[in-house]
Amino acid sequence: MAIKVAVVGCGYWGPNLARNFSQLAGTELAALCDRDRTRLAGLGRIYPAARLFTDYRKLLAWPEIQAVALATPVATHYRLGRLALEQGRDLLVEKPLTASGREAESLIRLAREKGRLLMVDHTFEYAPAINRMREIIAAGELGDLYYIRAEWLNLGLLQPDVNVIWDLATHIVSILNYVTGLEPSSLKATAAAYLRREIPEVAHIQLNYAGQVRAFMTVSWLEPRKTRSITIVGKRRMLVYDLTNTEEQIKIFDKGVDLDASHSEANQWRINYRYGDIYSPNLKNVEPLSALCGHFADCLKDRRRPRSDGESGARVVRVLEAAQRSLRRNGREIKLS
Ligand SMILES: NC(=O)c1ccc[n+]([C@@H]2O[C@H](COP(=O)([O-])OP(=O)(O)OC[C@H]3O[C@@H](n4cnc5c(N)ncnc54)[C@H](O)[C@@H]3O)[C@@H](O)[C@H]2O)c1
Known about the structure:
Elements: E1 3-8, H1 14-23, E2 27-33, H2 37-46, E3 51-53, H3 56-61, E4 67-70, H4 74-86, E5 90-94, H5 101-114, E6 118-121, H6 128-138, E7 145-155, H7 164-180, E8 186-192, E9 202-208, E10 214-220, E11 222-234, E12 238-242, E13 250-260, E14 270-279, H8 288-302, H9 310-328, E15 334-335
Helix pairs in contact: 1-8, 4-5, 5-9, 6-7, 7-9
This protein binds nicotinamide-adenine-dinucleotide.
């Protein structure tokens, strides 16, 4: 029997979840909930079989629903997520999982106590290109990692309750955690707010990992062009991911620089540049959110732990929280335990 799912939040992202849960074989979009009647009615017209709720508590009181997918603003994730778990529902929460590490840990504990599934929508972790990047790094194709540079830029959508870090950097942090398997030991963040005081639209974060590995990321809601790119520079090869290049989302460059430092005098050291081939792996054409919703349904059916579980959500939230702390201290380095 299909698993009955309720999508809560019919704004920008909720309709994408609704579409996927309505199309998947193993799930049924049984209910929609939004306190905004116009938005709810609009989405309700597309899915006439779904029951509509403006009151979230009334939705949870309806016993038919097995799982709740939350696509409401970040500040509400913890409170609404707690209520769903307390009412015995399995839970999919939009990224970022919560607005603080403490909230994330509390949700994880509650899900465990109640024997419910907790999953976070780290959409990119279900994208074929990102999974291929993870395999390439794990196979050692790039060699030891030097540094990573990531840019997530576009015009808008300014979020009402969070700054650009909690919106766009969430994606980059979840991708980097996933593809490298590394966790940063410290970070520094700087940002600027041009339109609204205290809610930066542009930010730069430096993540420091063990050794000299670094990740530099820029996120912005104030750019004329949409950019979603990650460059990973390794000792052996270099990789470029570009979401907007639909034909060649990943390119691997057999390029690099080797230093022959055998001579005792530094000015006699030889620098050798390598200019080798460039290749682009063929990738499956799968919508990441469809793969994610399918994985959620499989985990519900088999009662197994999702890949992007509460812990993975908490790891991302702790980095975002540390970035926020660094901003408050004018870019000071913050240690991550
Ligand atoms: N995975 C992704 O790529 C991706 C992309 C965009 C947004 N998101 C995430 O999705 C979430 C929502 O973002 P959005 O841009 O869709 O926001 P939005 O403001 O467009 O929509 C949120 C909706 O939630 C409703 N809502 C708020 N509180 C509610 C409550 N208590 N009960 C019922 N409805 C309530 C609002 O009325 C609104 O319609 C955020 O966590 C955001 O980070 C994820």
